[in-house]
């Protein structure tokens, strides 16, 4: 296939991921509401999986072909790209104060710390000897899954503590997690049957998975054609494409005033992505993290740094905006550019 056709396919699959992701998110919210999942562990797991279907599709496609650099690039490099999305939210939030001031709380800082711990575990997994595994599954992949489930449980408990949800008197965090799927505020497919909602969920999931496979295969070919490392391409362009559902739902959250939830969803997605390594291990029958390069570890460190900057901002809550951005978003943008430059040159 010609490069022009590959690029068009890549863009079309990205658009499908965006469009299907919106309906998938709405169907997930509706299922959450009708079956009273709320912030229970099962509901959070459902939301985590549904929101990461593009990454899951890329991982499945890449694992079956042995493209470990694409898996690692997308799952680790995609974290820094997805964190960068918060800059968009900061730029469009209403008012004179930055998003970190309006939404900042100890709860968001804790969620950022949760994501940092999970990301740091991937660095440990990368350094583990390749012959240390259980039937091809890295012990770190197993520990990441357990840490993620335990973290969800603990965060759910901490959300009920008032002190962790305290914001400044003139802040505007929006609805709390337990309120986001309240029927009177956030219902979709009103008057439609449960069967219809599950059908939409299934079609959205199927479309996202197919588009994710096309994205991985065309992206890999594009990277090869231009002489770009497939891992670097997966960590940047492919990572951005698979983050489109988070961008669309996050922008929607900001526009309706759910400022805190938009950030929480990004941090939640970042914490979930390393969990997918266990699927990659199972399909590859190898501990995929051990194939990480210095560039992959660089992306992991970059993801930790960007998340840490925002987490600190949610504690100190800077008040000033420059070109509609808080100082935290400006620092994140600067460090991301510097980080990319260092990763590309080493």
Count of discrete alpha- or pi-helical segments spanning 4 or more residues:
17
Instruction: Kindly give the count of domains.
Output: 1
Query: How large a portion of the residues is in β-strands, by DSSP E?
Result: under 5%
Chain oligomer state: single chain
Helix/strand order, N-terminal first: HHHHHHHHHHHHHHHHEEH
**Gyration radius, rounded:** 19 Å
Distance between the terminal alpha carbons, to the nearest Å?
A: 32 Å
Number of strands: 2
Mean pLDDT: 86
Description:
It is globular and about 55 Å long. The longest helix is centred in the N-terminal third of the chain and has 32 residues, at 3-34. It has a two-stranded antiparallel ribbon with strand order 1-2. 51% of the residues are buried. It contains 17 helices and two strands. It has one domain (3-344). By secondary structure, it is an all-alpha fold. The model is unreliable at 182-186 (pLDDT under 50). Helix 4 (68-84) packs antiparallel against helix 14 (259-272) and helix 11 (194-225) packs antiparallel against helix 12. The chain is 74% helix and 1% strand.
Topology:
Blueprint: H1 3-34, H2 41-51, H3 53-65, H4 68-84, H5 86-92, H6 99-103, H7 106-127, H8 139-158, H9 177-180, H10 183-186, H11 194-225, H12 230-242, H13 244-255, H14 259-272, H15 277-284, H16 294-316, E1 321-322, E2 325-326, H17 327-344
């Amino acid at each position: 296939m010609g490069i022009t056709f590959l690029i068009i396919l890549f863009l079309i699959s990205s658009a499908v991921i965006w469009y299907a992701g919106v309906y998938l998110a709405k169907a997930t919210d509706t299922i959450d509401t009708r079956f009273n999942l709320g912030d229970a562990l099962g509901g959070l797991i459902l939301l985590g999986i549904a929101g990461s279907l593009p990454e899951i599709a890329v991982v499945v496609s890449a694992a079956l072909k042995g493209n470990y650099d694409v898996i690692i690039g997308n799952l680790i490099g995609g974290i820094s790209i997805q964190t960068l999305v918060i800059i968009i939210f900061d730029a469009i939030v209403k008012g004179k104060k930055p998003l970190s001031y309006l939404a900042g709380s100890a709860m968001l800082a804790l969620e950022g710390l949760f994501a940092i711990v999970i990301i740091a575990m991937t660095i440990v997994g990368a350094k583990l000897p390749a012959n240390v595994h259980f039937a091809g599954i890295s012990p770190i992949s197993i520990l990441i899954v357990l840490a993620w489930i335990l973290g969800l449980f603990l965060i759910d408990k901490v959300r009920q503590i008032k002190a962790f949800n305290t914001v400044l008197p003139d802040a505007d965090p929006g609805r709390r997690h337990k309120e986001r799927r309240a029927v009177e505020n956030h219902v979709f497919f009103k008057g439609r049957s449960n069967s219809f909602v599950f059908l939409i969920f299934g079609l959205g999931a199927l479309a996202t998975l197919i588009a994710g496979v096309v994205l991985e295969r065309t992206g890999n070919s594009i990277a090869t054609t231009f002489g770009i490392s497939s891992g670097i391409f997966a960590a940047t362009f492919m990572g951005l494409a698979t983050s489109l559902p988070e961008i669309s739902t996050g922008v929607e959250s900001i526009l309706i005033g759910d400022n805190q939830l938009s950030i929480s969803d990004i941090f939640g997605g970042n914490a979930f992505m390393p969990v997918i390594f266990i699927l990659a291990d199972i399909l590859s029958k190898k501990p995929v993290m051990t194939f990480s390069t210095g560039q992959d570890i660089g992306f992991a460190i970059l993801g930790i740094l960007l998340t840490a900057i925002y987490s600190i901002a949610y504690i100190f809550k800077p008040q000033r905006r420059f070109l509609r951005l808080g100082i935290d978003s400006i620092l994140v943008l600067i460090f991301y550019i510097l980080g990319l430059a260092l990763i590309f040159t080493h």
